[in-house]
Amino acid sequence: MTKLLYLVIILLLWPTIASAKQQLDLYTWRQQEQLLWEKINNQNLLGDVQVNVKVIDFDTYQSHVQLAMQNQRVDLFQWMPGPAALAPLIEHNLISAQSNELTSINSNALPAATGADGNIYGVPFAMQLEGVLVNKKLLEKHGLNSQPRSVAQLENVFAQLKRQNITPLQMASDQWYLSQVVAEVMAAGLLNASRAQALIAGQACFTDPDYVNILSTLKSWHAQGFINQNVLTQDYHGMGTSKALGNSALALDGGWRAGPNSVFYQIDKSYQVGFWPIPGQSGKFYGFADGTYQINATSEHAALAQKVLDFTTTRTFANLFANTLNEIPAYDGQVQISSANLRAQAQLLNEQSYDASLFTASSLNQGSPNYQQLVAEAIRQVFSGVSAQQAAQHIQQGLNSWQYIGTQICQK
Questions:
Q1: Cα(378)–Cα(214) distance, rounded to whole angstroms?
Q2: 169 φ, ψ to 5°?
Q3: What is the pTM of this model?
Q4: C-beta separation of 21 from 49 below 8 A
Q5: Are 127 and 330 in contact (CB under 8 A)?
Q6: Which pairs from 92-98 meet CB under 8 Å and 24+ separation?
Q7: Quick one: average pLDDT of 176-199?
Q8: Residue 97: HSE in the Cβ half-sphere, 13 Å Cα cutoff
Q9: Hey, which end of the chain has fewer CB within 10 Å, N or C?
Q10: Is the pLDDT of residue 386 over 90?
């Protein structure tokens, strides 16, 4: 009788047992991912898998996730772009190289997923546009909405804003911001891409005049009061709030600030964002992949996690990503984008992107201290009174210390 009762119970529960989904945990610092994966789950796009998003504060994210991975609490996670960020994960066998070619992913996004060994790890998730983000309403109010076509014209805009007691250019001192945003936006505007490629190949030096010009321009702007004077103590969040309140007109920033959920629109629903490149010798925007989705190689559900990763390379995912998050996906095919603002960003990425990335170059970032660290330190130095030439020498000496690719010709 007891056996018969158990059989009846099993038969009654079988539909529930059979339809149960495997729960996978995705760790991220991006709160917006929750809405995206909620839609994916609700539309049953992953069949027998449900992805549960765990949001961790960015300041403690890397250490938190690496510890959780070792304790096998993580199945999937998002990670920062480039070989320097991937290195500790590769070293400790926490991630594995992709066995399939990512043919549906934008080739400009792949450096974000490329390790120093040349292998691809994970899948890039977003293409970001970086440049000068403009408070269009504030500039129009002062008759300054015409896009400058030279550095001299840009500095004239700065000077007119300063005369109106408006801080022209708002910046912060977070290391990731200085290396990933400030250094790359300035290079994309002032340094020809061929020269950046020469730096990456070890055929040019960071003490060459055209690179030193990047640091000297920042130093000059700071000395003239064009950059907020608290730049060395202000963090990225404070920078965004200050710009949203209309205390400054421009900022070196990324397209993620242009979405409806950004601090700009939280403070002013009618805020209008524009994009300018630094109008120098190159005059380009910096476009890059914001990071990658990764699989924890120690997860007992790694095979199912790969199924999720494969889904992130599809057009279905790209359309959802674009229209849920208001961000440009890393997908290389046709994507239906409903936001006019986002379509404009995508067009700028396609037509005016810089053809180099010092930030993600493995040749500059596979040793320690890497370029990402050194350039952030150099920018802080010029804001603290060090000469541009000395700050450039700091970068060069740091790279030479681990015999990077350009050491032979740049050892001075």
A1: 11
A2: -130, 120
A3: 0.84
A4: yes
A5: yes
A6: 92/66, 93/297, 93/298, 94/66, 94/69, 94/70, 94/296, 94/297, 94/298, 95/121, 95/122, 95/294, 95/295, 95/296, 95/297, 96/121, 96/295, 96/297, 97/121, 98/122, 98/123
A7: 97
A8: 11
A9: N
A10: yes
Q: CA-CA distance, 159 to 168, in Å (whole number)?
A: 8
- AA identity, residue 314: T
pLDDT tens figures, 293-348: 999 999 999 999 999 999 999 999 999 999 999 899 999 989 999 988 889 889 99
257 phi and psi angles, rounded to 5 deg: -80, -10
Tokens for 128, please give them. Answer: 């970001």
Mean pLDDT of 82-111: 92
In our burial notation (b when 16+ CB lie closer than 10 A, e otherwise), range 80-94 reads bbbbbbbbebbeeeb
**Picking from 62-76, 85-99, 293-307, 395-409, which range would have the lowest pLDDT averaged per residue?**
62-76
Q: Residue 274, CB half-sphere, CA atoms under 13 Å: how many?
A: 16
